[in-house]
Amino acid sequence: MASQIVSAFGAVIAGVFGCALYYWLSDKLLQLVLPVRSGDVQRISANLKTHAAIRPWLFLGPALLLMIVYLVYPVIATFILSFYDRSGGNFVGLANYKWAATDGQFRQSIFNNILWLAVVPAACTFFGLVIAVLTDRIWWGNIAKSLIFMPMAISFVGASVIWKFIYEYRGADGTQIGLLNAIVQYCGGDPQVWIAMPIWNNFFLMVILIWIQTGFAMVILSAALRGIPEETIEAAVIDGANGWQIFWKIMVPQIWGTIAVVWTTITILVLKVFDIVLTMTNGQWNTMVLANLMFDWMFRGGGDSGRSAVIALIIMAAVTPIMIWNIRQASEDRGGH
Amino acid sequence: MNAAINLRRIGLPRLIVHFSVLVICILWLIPTIGILVTSLRDPGQIASSGWWTAFSGAAETSAARLGDPSTARQDGPNYVISGSVFDSEDAGAKGSVRAFGTKVAAPTEFAAGEAADIGDGETLTVNEDGGYVYSKNAPFDDKRGKRVYLSVAQPASFTLDNYRTVLTSQGIGQAFVNSLTVAIPATIIPILISAFAAYALSWMHFPGRAIIIAVVVGLIVVPLQMSLIPLLKMYNEIGAFFGIASRSYVGIWLAHAAFGMPLAIYLLRNYIAGLPKEVIESARVDGASDFEIFVRIVLPLSFPALASFSIFQFLWTWNDLLVAMVFLGTGKDQLVLTGALNALLGSMGGKWEILTASAFITIIVPIIVFFALQRYLVRGLLAGSVKGG
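The joint structure predicted for all components is written out below.
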């Protein structure tokens, strides 16, 4: 165990040192091969130009290499693999796509993903907005925000254990140690096995993600609310608008862009939801979602890279519009010099 | 700030606002408090009562056998056996008796101290201290002592044993070290790489810059799922080619560094591009090369952005399950905390003393990081709320 810690810190030092050394050495090498400190003026100016042309690529090199190997190439390879059979060796055309179109579990996953997409981003944004408005009005608002924001730091697996304990079921006659069943029993209802109730169990899993992500929505929306120019609100007050009208007609329209960002960010997260379903039900009781089905096919019966790739591509296709929108936004306000 | 003051004019009386925020906070905290309290309780109590009763003590159901009929003495027309339920050989935990019963299904049929008529002309009284009087209006004809069931109140008992157990015998201690082994290099290695790239993308001119920026922004949202299959194949081939293990720490460090790279470059570029132009121009005029400008001026000035990204990356690598499941083995020396917790959920389902203690160990590090560095985390979120995990 001790040797492992040593090797981890060794890796940190070697990694940081290696990176620093690369940038330093490559810079020195450039200076050495194409000197700019001495020699005739023409040569120096030519060398300076070459420096300016080469240096960006020396700076970008490692980052580009990592992104190409780990992100760009795999995206292309996954696309190609979707036309090949389970081992990736034989071309099968659209067979994997045909399989997906008729597979019951795949349809179930699509249906569940749509349920998640319909509920979680909306719920997080709504609760986030309400809490942001409420906490902005009280002196201990920042403490409250911290507490609601805190689940963001908790892993999905940790959150699943936390909530599994809340949904815990102990026979109809036993003492319920799960909070939800205890409340139901206290109110005179019958304890239920919550995570095994088809359709509804999806919602019990969604609660976990809403619990985690509401803080995120709250923080972003709260910052946006504070950025609203006070004149607009003052003008509305003078015009005799009530609180409800000010909120919906003055404040919400002004933070519309931020709401869209929060919504899309959570949408992307929801499309990739994996850990929660894996740890809570592992897709049993009709709770399968695309990311879990994809992982399942990656290893099921030795793995089927073709089918798995098709499922990954569906997730990718769902993300693509948001991706294009992001790129457009980013190139519009491209700063830099 | 002024908007906040203006908000006060809106709607609802202040008291209701305070109250609703309080309720929301409690709702949000209860789940976490639940596992914290449970992880500190005695395993027997966890199984027999809800964690919310932890401070008032728990009631445990136990069984006891009353004295042998041969010890009965005659008292007027009745035959009486007396003693203490806690004296019997197979008595359960001691404590104060709250209720008792004669059927296993109904251990709380009669309250302590009540003279219970249990049929056949028999009456039984069990007092809080465990003393009982069992009488019958005829001689006892049973061969053995009567079995009774008790609900025994236990004083609240808290213990650190659960933590000791999971850290030593459930492999959580080792997993903790493994998680650190993954998260620390995977956080630090990409910082320098992305900072250099971000500088090049904001202050250097070269053909293709705009395209690279667009690609980086696009890559931020590419689902991890797209990368897994080809990378798994690639790792296996590299492993087979060099005759080394395909699942190693080096492999996951590079994977995490690469997956975090687009967001890192995006966040840092936003920040570095916003640095004052004069500072960088004047350094250039003084003859400093880009390398010198970056190391001496840009890197120190970018500390807040570097801190924001490091927190993101640390939380993401520490909390990750999927990447670890694909790129790391499940052996003792490679299983990270999230993976170990997931495995325990399968093998120890229902053993909440193990699960809650393990979960708390898993979440404590990110929570400390969160509360200590929340300022930077919020700044990072506001600057780059596009990735979403």
